[in-house]
Structures are given as C-alpha cells and as structure tokens.
Amino acid sequence: MIDRRRLMASGIAAGTLGLAAPALAHGLNEPYDLPDDYMPQEVRLKSELPPGEIHVDPNQYRLYWTLPKKKAIRFTVGIGRGNLYHPGTFYVGAKREWPKWKPSPAMMERDPQAYTDFLEGERFENGMPGGIANPLGARALYLFSERGRDTYLRIHGTNNPRTIGIEVSNGCARLVNDQVTQLYDMVPLRTRVVLYPKANGRPEHAPVG
C-alpha cells in the first residue's frame, strides 16, 4: 500500500500519487476520512494489460489506471446503482475541469417531475454551472463509443466521500475530488475505458485486481 503521509507530501513521482487533505462530506458538519483501503495504491495485476487504460471492476468498487509491467494504480469508486450501470468498452471523448451538469435525457425520462422541478426551480435550463455543489465534482471524463457518440456515462468527482464504495449514481463511476483530479491529469483523450459486468449475485472478479 502507498503510504498516506508520503502520498500527501509528494506529487506524481516515483510511482506515488499526491493527495490533498481529507475531503469533507458536503452539507455535513462532521469530517469524514476515507478508509485507508480506499486510498490510491499501486498494485500488481493478475494479467497483462496495456498501460494507459482505465478498467473498472464494479463488484469490488475499484478503478485501475494501468501501468507498464503488470502494475496499476487502484482507486475506489462509487458506481451506478441497479441496472443503471452499463458495462462495455468506451473511450475518453472529452475532459472538463469543474464541469457543468445537466440531467441526461434518460434521467429526465426516468423521473421527469423531479428533474423538471430542479431545472425550473434552480433556473438551470442550460446546465448547472461547475462548482463544489455540482454533482460532477472537480473533474469529469466523458465516455464515448468507439464511433464517437457521447454515451452520457462519466467518470467524475464528488465532494461527498460517503458515496464511495457503494452503488449510488446514475450509471457513472465517481471518485472523491482529490483523487479524480489526480486521475484526470494522467488520462489523455482517446484513452480506452473498460467497464466490467456486475456479478449477478455471485462472487466474480474482473481480471485486473
């Protein structure tokens, strides 16, 4: 495991990942430190994978940024709840710092009243501006199909660390803002992203952990 104190004191160098101070859950009075096991760690992979890819194992709530020599940096994520998680192979088609957010057509269809009230009440018809209260957090990677179509799936940040390590989102993978910022800086456009299937109620692991 990469040492927490060394992480916080260093940048991305010599195989370590720099982190800021522990995140606070938005809207809550008490600070919440991520468990040590949720901190980024350099790990050895079970099988050879090309370096410079993202692999998400929803059954373990893990995201892997692959490195040479069967290694990877492992992050812990929140994933899409229920059948809103969509496995497959995607590509990073866009990147945004402090992105704006607007409900996708699918979200509007699932709960039109809630999102209509939100958009009209908050006057966010053209999208909610980026900022600490924005659901996409500090950074977002936009997942596109191989043909270049936006899938409305995102790997993004959150200022609520209590939503990490559970099924919580509308089909996206989320990291705390400190960690998604580090991932964002490493990931170029057109990066291949593999979202592995859920396990259908039985133990199953993606071939990356």
Describe the structure.
This protein is an alpha/beta fold. It has one domain (4-195): L,D-transpeptidase catalytic domain-like, CATH 2.40.440. The protein has four helices and eleven strands. The protein has helices spanning 4-9, 105-110, 112-122, 177-186, and strands spanning 41-44, 54-57, 62-67, 71-76, 79-80, 88-97, 139-144, 150-158, 167-169, 173-176, 192-195. The strands form two sheets. A nine-stranded mixed β-sheet has the order 1-4-3-2-11-6-7-8-10, covered by helices on one side. The longest helix has 11 residues, at 112-122. The model is unreliable at 1-28 (pLDDT under 50).
Quick tags:
209 residues; alpha/beta; L,D-transpeptidase catalytic domain-like; nine-stranded mixed sheet; two-stranded parallel sheet; 4 helices; globular; disordered N terminus
Brief account:
This protein is α/β, with parallel strands linked by helices and 209 residues long.
Which structural class do the helices and strands define?
Answer: alpha/beta
Order of helices and strands: HEEEEEEHHEEEEHE
Question: Proportion of β residues?
Answer: 25-35%
Just name the CATH architecture: Beta Barrel
Q: Could you give me the name of the CATH homologous superfamily? A: L,D-transpeptidase catalytic domain-like
Could you name the ranges where pLDDT drops below 50 across 5 or more consecutive residues?
Answer: 1-28
Tell me, briefly, the overall form.
Answer: globular
Strand order of the largest sheet: 1-4-3-2-11-6-7-8-10
Largest sheet: 9 strands, mixed
Task: Provide the CATH topology.
Answer: L,D-transpeptidase catalytic domain-like
Overall tally of domains? 1
